[in-house]
Amino acid sequence: MKLQSSLKEKKRYLVIEIMSGKVGQKFTFKEIKDSLEKSFSEHLGTFQLAKASVMVLKEKFNQDKQKVIVKVSNKYVDQILASLALTKEIAGKEVLLHSICCSGTLKKVSDRLG
Q: How do residues 24-33 score in pLDDT, each as one tens digit?
């Protein structure tokens, strides 16, 4: 039996840009993912993090422009954005995370990625 589309959990995709204090400093996908997951867990808690269904998409990571796509439940977009604003470092280095756009389709945010 297939689940009706109205009963499925809706999702949003966020494009996040990582800006470092040093010019030319690049982070790997693993460093970014670990830092984001730690930040989300600290600010949301384990239970809300599980409900938010947060995923950092590796296949859409842009190493040159330091942009990544995060998939999240539409009910928790504001909490995730607040957590991003409170994230100050990745791999021990000071950074600023900037949300570029939010959309319900992966195609639209992929256009903004690169």
A: 889 999 999 9
